[in-house]
Model the fold of this input.
Amino acid sequence: MNFDDTPQEAEFRARARAWLDDNLPANWRDRTTTPPDIIALSRDWQASKADGGWACIGWPTEFDGQSATPMEEAIWAQEEGELGTLTSFPLMIGLGMSGPMLMVHGSDAQKKKYLPPMLRADKVWCQLFSEPGCGSDLAAVRTKAERDGDDWVVNGQKVWTSFAHFADHAILLARTDPNVPKHKGLSFFVVDMKAPGVEVRPIRQMSGDAEFNEVYLNDVRIPDADRVGEVGEGWRVAMTVLMHERSGVAGADQFGFDNLLGQMENLQMDGAPAVENQAVRARLADFYVRISGLENTNLRTLSALSRGEQPGSEASISKLVMVEQLVEQTSLALDVQGMAGIMTNEAEAPAGGVHQFGYLRDLCMRIAGGTDEILRNTLAERVLGLPPDLRIDKKAPFNELPVSGSTQD
Amino acid sequence: MDFDLSEDQLLLKDQARKFLEDQCTPAEVRRVFEGDESYHPDLWRSISEMGWLGAALPEEYGGVGMGYVELCVIAEELGRSLAPVPFSSTVYLAAEAILLAGSEDQKQKYLPQFAMGEIIGTLALAEGPGTVTAASIQTSFADGTLSGHKLPVPDGDVADIAVVAARDQNAPGDGTSLYIVHLNGTGIDRKVIETLDPGRSHARIDLNKAAAEPLGRPGEGPEILDQLFDRAAVLFSFEQLGGAQRALEMARDYAMERFAFGRPVGSFQAIKHKLADMYVATELARSNCFYGAWALSSESPELPVAAATARLGAIKANHLCSKENIQTHGGMGFTWEFDCHLYYRRAKLLALALGGEPEWQDRLIDRLRRQRPASQEAAQ
Done:
């Protein structure tokens, strides 16, 4: 049991550090004021890394990665720090999900066409999966793709699509046969987001911003060359995407515990620093123990990966715990601000209103990318071996399944 | 970086598990839990023959040349099996205290006896309810003897020696100092006390001018205890982890076999989600325990934070798992006959053995503040 670098890891870390010291943009924080700024920063930084050979180091060398091990990816993430964490988010659907999916399921032509611009962030990707009628029940998508000559004609509506407003491409799960059981009638496509018939409409979220969208697809034509995998094989391809969505390994301090502790030192309660209040201390201790557990669990997961083992569903722990942790941490940060904790104006609010903003935004992650409830089911079934739920929807033809608004017997 | 157990350590874990499955069956645990014996003599003898008592002791003091990670591996298996033996008192408390603060003579004298299972040791600190502080220690040292009382003392009725905290008026600081007391000597009265975990015996010890051998310098008690508690916290956290893991498995196994409404109760989401939460808590605890084991075995300056973190995570996981194991068993979980309550009782004992959650939360925050350069500035 050893938390120090091996000689090879130390050497890799030194190389990464050296390149970063020479290339990390000095004033990157100035470019993080608005979402469009962050997106531009992300694209520039990705291109910079691509030039230096440090983009997507986990990708195979045949696709311009370094075939880095999971441990090396973790070391890189640690060294890249906050800039890495911030800029990976807008590019995640491409680099983290679509790219790996194409490497497994894509044709040679598709890999050649899509992977290089994706790596450099010349092209950015979004995900057309969820619909108004289905989120957790992804296999119940209704957006249909009908064959017409060399093309497919797509009609339907997707929802919660982050980055749709600036994405160049999308990965799409659509129904190609409604007469068979739902998992068997799906196919997978790459969509040109600039194609005629693609309409993006922002959705206002509870914080007031509109960071995601509805995407209407009206007679959108997709060449059959952009179909990924066989007709009817769409679910298998989608599973590969979801597997990568759920298995992120944490990099630098994502919780800002040190900042939180600092805040508790500086804020006053009853004439003393908030950190001397017993109730605050108990909650802070609870947070630290959970965060520490998460960070150490990530390290154990990495060890397993490095030994060639597949940790699988254990990675769900990370998302389940991390998000809840952030929500409660933000809540505490507001609680110690007392009555002024409700103020949101940047100029007047404590800490520029950052916690107030977070409070109205953090909850989405309990729902996005696999809800807490689905993750608990997954852990119970795949890790603990408990029986699956009773299902009525696996064998019936898709077009016979009840939908929202139906009456129950 | 390698954050897991080595091949040899995994082998040891496997061996320990098989040994305890064979020698420490639920029936043997019940024998002590329900009977009059303070501990299981055959099991204790077998454990000492395995060399486990000297797992982390240096070879020059009778140790077997393993290390602290190995001791942690053993601790987890002991916790899993609820082994009714004075292992923690002897190894995590008495032996560690003497290793930390003993003179060369004291180490040469006592440690090999612990390693061979020839004597049982313990720590006598509390004197009734409430957190232990300098003010709460009334037992006093004068003329080479101790007078006062200690309550509760783990294995106090069977221990041969105890490391006792007492106040020496002439010592520097608040005067708290440590002493080794031979519990079979004169001026000592011991009485077994009832606790909520009859699987581990406890006693009240009354001292009336009992001969006392200083351990460490006068007034050095708080400093030694502080370090001792960090080390013991990591070791106890592995026992807690073993208990939590076993409780989770018992709940899962029961949920698979018990049917209701035409199917296994484990197929209902309320049970699945409950068990998923138990699993998450146990895994987080395991990770924090591992970090504590590393900090302990590498003498890392991070030990105080790592130890508090390991203990708090283990308390939480063991509490949740032992409690929800009962819940998952329905009415049967509430019976004397089923073993669920044995894990629940042990969980609370271990959660209090070094002081409870509130004390350790305080301890953790103090140490985290000390680590921050900014807080050092503010203090100036």
User: Anything to note?
Assistant: Residues 375-380 of chain B have pLDDT under 50 and may be disordered. Chain B touches chain A through 52 residues (CB under 8 Å). Residues 38 and 201 of chain B are 5 Å apart (CA to CA).
